[in-house]
């Protein structure tokens, strides 16, 4: 009975290739499988990372039946690549499906398209006479890249212990050092320029005010400050603060320029100069011609 049942499976070494990169796999020849080439899902990640094909999905999943005609799963993802067997390269469709312990199952439709014949006695494929040998060489990825290395729990536990000791030895001294060091804010150049610009504007505006001493500018978030004399309140705001203030009632948004501000300052200076000249002329007339001045009054 052992002579008619069992024995090694009819498998053959082959490669999945695309754009000069190939993966070594082992395929089971099965003329009863109704498809081209079926790929085990465990190869999905290595195919995606190394070959980088274009994956396709069918809108409707197709059920897959086993040898007993019972549904064992569904397939809906596939890609196009090259299958290299005996240095003969054929472009075919690869379908992801549970293939058991085999990497590939080469189905009936692949044999129909290539006109090749399986030879179970010699464990090989009989190719037609017109099948050409492809001399192209691919960069082959070994089969060991498919499986992830096993983790030794004892080694991992020892590595975690050493990592904790290193953290204690390196982080705690740094935390103590940071706690003892006081940091002072660094004033950047744009902040210094901003401060100088505000000081210059204040120097230009304060002489125009009727009071002798310049008042203290207090910028409040509740709204613009009110001043007597020159009704100008200058402040630099961030965009978020500007939008927040613009939504409030009674806020009027306008635009001006430094040139217009200089013109206002010059006009006010000219008005003050004319008033000073008129007052000086009136005092001179009063001093020289007191009678005429009283008549004029």
Automatic annotation (TrEMBL):
UniProtKB keywords: Coiled coil
Regions annotated as coiled coil: 261-288
Keyword Coiled coil carried by entry: yes
Taxonomic superkingdom: Eukaryota
Protein's name according to its UniProt entry: Uncharacterized protein
